[in-house]
Amino acid sequence: MQGRSLFGRRRSSRRPHWRQSRFVGPALLIGATLAGCTGVIADSGTGSGGPDASGGGEGGGGEELSGDFRGSSAGLRLLSVSEYRATLRDLLGVEVPGTDTFQADTPVQGFTAIGATRVAYSAPKVERFEQVAYELAGEVFAEGGRRQDLVGCEPSSSTDPCIREFLASFARRAFRRPATAAELDTYAGLVASTADPDAWTGLAYAVAAILQSPSFLYRVELGEPDAAGGEHLRLTGFELATRLAYLVTGSTPDDELLDAAESGALDDEQGLSEQLERLLASPAAQTALMTFLEEQLDLHHVHKIVKVPEAFPDFTPALAEAMAHEMYEVVRDVAVREPDDLLSLFSRRDTYVNGPLAALYGVPGPESANDWIPVTLPEDGPRAGLLGFAGFLASHSGAAETSVTKRGFFVVSKLLCREIPAPPGDVITVLPEPPAGGHVTMRERVEQHMSDPSCKGCHLAMDPPGLALEHFDALGVYRETDGGLAIDATGEIDGEAFDGARELGELLAAHPDVSACFARRFHEYALGTALGKKTSVTDLVGAFEDSGRRLPDLVRAVVLHDSFRLVSAPR
Amino acid sequence: MLAAVGLPPLEAMLNGNGTAHADGTPIPVRFGIWYWGSGVRRERFFPSTPGPNWEITPELAPLEGVRSEINVLGGFSVREGGIVHHIGTAVLKTGRGYIDHGGFFNTDVRAHSFDIDVARHLGADTAFPALHVGVYSDGQFNGEGLNTRALSHNGPGSPNLAETSPRAVFDRLFGVQTDVPSTDAAPFPSAEHRRSVLDIVNEQARALRARLGTADQARIDEHLEAIRGIERRLEANPSTGNAACQSPARPTQGAPDLRRPDMVLHNELMADLTAMALACDLTRVFTFRHHGWTDDPVLEDLGANATHHTLTHTEGGNQPTVHAINVFTMSQLAKLIERFQSVSVGGGTLLDHSAIMAYSEVGEGWSHSLDDIPMMTIGRAGGALRTGLYHRSTTRESVTKVNLTMMRAVGMDVEAFGEGPHRVTDPVGAIMT
Fold first, then answer.
1. Which terminus of chain B has a lower count of CB atoms within 10 Å, N or C?
2. CB of A529 within 8 A of CB of A72?
3. Which of A19-23, A266-270, B140-144 has the lowest mean pLDDT?
4. CA-to-CA distance for A159 and A147, rounded, in angstroms?
5. Cβ contact (<8 Å) for B307 and A399?
6. For B230, which residue in chain A has the nearest alpha carbon?
7. What pLDDT, on a 0 to 100 scale, did the predictor assign at position A12?
8. pLDDT tens digits for B14-55?
9. Which among A212, A194, A205 is positioned nearest to A167, based on CA atoms?
10. CA–CA separation, B380 vs B409, rounded Å?
11. In A229-333, where do the E strands start and end?
12. What number is the ipTM of this complex?
């Protein structure tokens, strides 16, 4: 940031003298050059333990790519539980039964999409896939089910030609590519051998078999040699269509997209762009793109907020759900509903409140406590943007006390993409107890971290933005003081001073590393690969910056980027 | 409709002294792991007198009634540095350090965990190779790597997550109750046709596998292994059960409430399901993950105002709340032990025929110590293990000696366990008969 003050005044000179004498001053910088805890966006990939050559066989994707290729390697991607459900809804027009019957997805590096290229389907999940296949096939092909709509004919026998036609068209949708003749022979044979009492039952078995096929359960991204002679593999049109559909709509490609793939229309940028725009305009895109933000911004953490009654007697699960509703709605507005500069999320004052949330924020609420109304938070108030949401503040706190480290870690790691190594072994991590009969502020307690050399490096990077939010207690309620003591919420990031949450938010909303971080993380999310050190995404960042930093623009930049089409050798 | 459970041995088929069936085949040994996160308060956990006359300590007090069934082990260490909880759990599972993929505490195991070898030895013919359950998990694991998420791993990238929904465990073991419309009196799907379909899937998976790199081949292998499990269960004959094998009532409970989990109830339900899975010989291997350190609950009923792991870092003084949680955790373990004692097998109890290793991944939570890892063995392994002892290593031996001891106790012919500083070739002789 070239030392230019973007927001607010430098405040270090206004700090109380006693505080400077303790430890703050220049030590409280994020981005200060300290062993192990500096971070540069293009250089933050391999992290704490150092690259582990011997573990490379199952390594973190990016480390194994050849040269400076910034893409994924050829391979398989699992369907997430929500992708699996959406896909079956699109294929069969029915809902997968049961809401809690699947083992949860396994995110890696913060994204389920990366876990999907790293983690195997568990045995309970494979078993459940088999059960669901029969449950859904049974439902669809039951008498009075929607079998005729699905199949498009009334088969006169198990060898009726319309059966093979249906199998070809259903398998194409399910496999996201045309089925081979051998595959169709297999399924037609299965229909014939299981058509008891009639062909409908045989078809039910065939559909159940297709829904258990690896070609259905895995998104195959193996690519083919580049006809133009490039050194990398190119995804086939169908593989590209699949990657595009799951990224933008969270589900399987529709017939129009598969037709475009088959015709070669996706081979040129214009054809790909046309399909992308069509999908972006679909309602499914609004839900699917939120998946990225939900994981990137920890939105889902809000569902597990726990507060203890002695500290927060008024806390209820309903309040936590209200916090969740606010966060999701505002993020949805900015990101997908009326796409705006994504970074405005950190300075925005427009939000929604119901009665309890309005009371928590100290703003006028709706007449009926359960109603939601839009409000604009005061311009000179303490709170703005995501870091001012009660949901963020409460989910990045303990059950009774704030957590400077959790809040600060979020800013540094998730928003600025800076790597924080793990704490060293055999350190005593208990914060010093307050002196008997006296209270000290959280800042004074965490100073312990910063005075211990083995803790100092990382906590110097993590704690300042956390301390900036100390005016909000563990529920997100504003407080002037902490146990009667004044709160010092000042700090600096890369030489820029801030005082409190609103100024920190405004600073982040203009910070180039925050927009670069969004670009890098979305790129990794889209490819399902932690690109690590190989990610010098300057062209993507540039496109994102130039476009006004709206999420749909980032989607366009990534989808039209070479790395969305090319893959390196199988891992 | 999809249930096809294994065949438990009838009591009438046992021989007179209960060590073997009437036809001479021995009663199988069962193996388990019982785990809790974030260690103990060392000075309140470990007894001071090794040997059979160890005194009950505050944190072992809940186990007083079953002290004759267990051994308490002290003085064993994880002999490698690293991210402390992560290295502890990796070594105790696999005898090796972890892979660090970079990013946020993003570790994974280097190799499969030792329970997989035990399951291959004990459970080749059972309906399930192993059962993996837990009492509580927030499901988010603080975003940390796969190594933190499970006790059992088929290999890198393949954790066997602990199921925390009693209902889901029941459905998997004893059969899903579903309501699939049928076009005829004939059941849909029939076992025969399910097998035909799985044959097709198998063939397709193998064809796909041939086009993949090694990491994806390993993932397909896990998929194929899961299919083999389904096939094995399709071949087993339905059972009428016996006195020891009684399908419990289907629990109505899913995973515990994230905010106010009923730990006592969920522990009892899981202990019951585990005991019955073993009694019915649906599996001979289990892992029981009471709570971890990245996904642990706030135990408000015990006075906690933060998660167990957080409290080990933040509570001052003698950490009375941490201590209370440790005592509570041992009372939960006691429940499982008592449940196993209540199941008759042969002339004795299920516990007599079990070898359970209980441990946490760190010594003391607050200091992140990798020395003095709290460990226990539970049960007699059909006579292979002595019990009732407090055994203390005075030479900072590797924790992996206990893994090797368990493998030998269940009858495995293994020469060594672990690699590098974790490699051991001798068991803890003091607790073996």
1. C
2. yes
3. A19-23
4. 17
5. yes
6. A127
7. 35
8. 444 445 655 566 789 999 999 999 999 999 999 999 999 999
9. A205
10. 9
11. 233-234
12. 0.89
